[in-house]
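Re-run with default settings, no changes from the original entry. Doing this only to confirm the output is reproducible before filing.
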Amino acid sequence: MLFRRIYQFLIVYSIGLLFLLLIKSVLSLSDYVIPGVGLIIETFHNVFDTYFFDVMNTMSVTVLGQCVSIAMAFGVGIAGRRSSWMGSFIKVTAYNIQAYPIVALAPIIFILLGDGFLSRLLIASMICYFPLLLSVLGIMATPVVDIEHFYIITGRMRWQLEVKIRAFENLSKLTTVISGSATLAMAGTIVAEFIAANAGIGYSIRIALYQSNLAGILIALFMIGIVISIYQGCLETLGEQIKTRWSVSKRGNI
């Protein structure tokens, strides 16, 4: 699964790069507009070390931001799973907060928190959080009737057990959603770095843009894609392992 993620990205990236080179060839554009293969390779050797540590910096914020958003989504999703006044209030509050575009909130965040780690973490969490919340709400609000009915009639149903049952029955969906949210968390971190931060690969992309260094931007995109593909593959593999162990544990308890 990990290697499948990587080679799928490589295929997509190669197609995009070949398309750019085709435009360069057809329109006879200079390396200043669209870099040639030689310039891309030369730039790769020149910036690899710097960009590698920049991507790792961004990835650290991404992972932490995703963890924060997962905790928030599960907390709100579990609290708002009931069709009660409180559950409805929690959902409406979460929806209204998300209604404000991040580009409108980002300046306020940078003014209050500066252009460092906390600003990037908050923006990454905010962008990643809402799709997770929608999925968790949908899963937690949908009863698993056949299983839950047994515990209800025997008087053993508790909210913790209810959450556990619904999470297990939808573990594949949760794994897919959490894996997909990694891309949003990475995008949120890069957006924050591109707007006003002073570190990370988004900051390097901004510098490359100001220098009209398309080769540097292409290298940055390549490294971002490789790292996020590895991370998503690891998340999917971990999800499958958890599901397998949980299934074995469940059969052992029966």
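Residues 62 and 186 are 5 Å apart (CA to CA). The chain has one domain: 2-26+35-249.
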